[in-house]
Amino acid sequence: MILDDVERSFWATDGCGNIPELGLNLSALKQYLPQGWHHLVHLARLANTLRSLQRNDGSMADQELARRLYEQSALALESAAGGCPDEDIAELMRLRAVGLRRHDTREAATALARAANDRLVVLCGPLVTWPGKSGAYLHSTCVALEDERLTRRIRALEAELGALRGYYEKLLGLQGLELAEIPSYTVSELVLCGGEANGFPKHFTYFLPEDEGHRKLKPRKTLIFHNIYLERTRRLSLPLLRRLCPELPVEDEDVCDSMVALTWFRGHDVGHYWRHRDAAFGRLKELGTARSYALQEALCDVLGYLALHGPWRQEARQAAPTGFYLAEMLRFLGRGDQTIHPDFEAAHLVLSYLVKKDFVSLDAERGELRVCLERFQEGVTEVAGQLMRAVLGGDVDEARHLLAEHGLAADSRRSHLEPVIRRAASMGNDIRYTYEG
Fold this sequence. Notes:
alpha+beta; 437 residues
């Protein structure tokens, strides 16, 4: 079968020799659901079959076969619910079964977003995929078990949100920040995955119920798969960092520090909910919707990084935040095509600023970066101030200037960072899941 260019861009094998495999561990699921875990394995396999019948617009190639597969999926959910030790979680699975039969999972999706007990999370039904691949919500199954210790530690950061606001205002020079209602945050371990979610590129987090197709409903919940997030950092981002920043003085374990990674992402997540009376998101979109998103993603990235140097500082060595953020930034660059991955241009914007302003040195011949930890933090703080004014301060001229000077040209080969982008893209940018059951 010959795939067209759009479809090919989602195969993680493009430009690299192999895809690292991550084994999903079923032992915790078997312990929690000893009489029902195999029904969830069946559910994930049914999702793979359903997705194989589904076109990228969400329609099914064989409606009758799809109907039978949906019915089997509903029965698997009900069978798993029958052995579930937590009745509230069992009821969520039963709601899923009803939704699959009706082809309407809204009630199940909103109930999951409201749920206080996330010991077992089962997503099954239409789920978001990547911009540029499809605007449809495609059939998926994800099964995850909460890491209650990590969830408590990350949720505890919320006690310092007031201090974080004051820190940003003082450091970045924009007074009067306000915080909208933020999503709750659950740290989990992905144990099963099927359907679109098991395709490429992989997600390490879902925003609920938005990613199930209900963008305006509240409350919201961020579900992060920490095993996927950290293993992807270890298997993909860290090798990129070592290859492209060979002299950076940071230990491997600092780049892969779980609390640094989870705190950075929570800072990024919360970053999307800061508001200011002068913000003009509508005018930003006049610069292009994808490019306005890139500016917002860049701001949230740097806010996550700076939080680790402020009230959300973790018990890690000084180099850990820079090592982690820079490794992730390089992985973003390796993805390519900003129309598919908005964080590609976001990473380009920040790194371009750092290079052009001499906070980071580029060896174009070798495709390597020379990074001083202190200068990197200084440069990120400076560009964060400009992004803050552009995105939340309503300074559209500043936004236009940042995109013109540091955004990505239509052809990435024209970028002054092309040697780095090319080397980053030549390595793997995704992982493959395996499990036994």
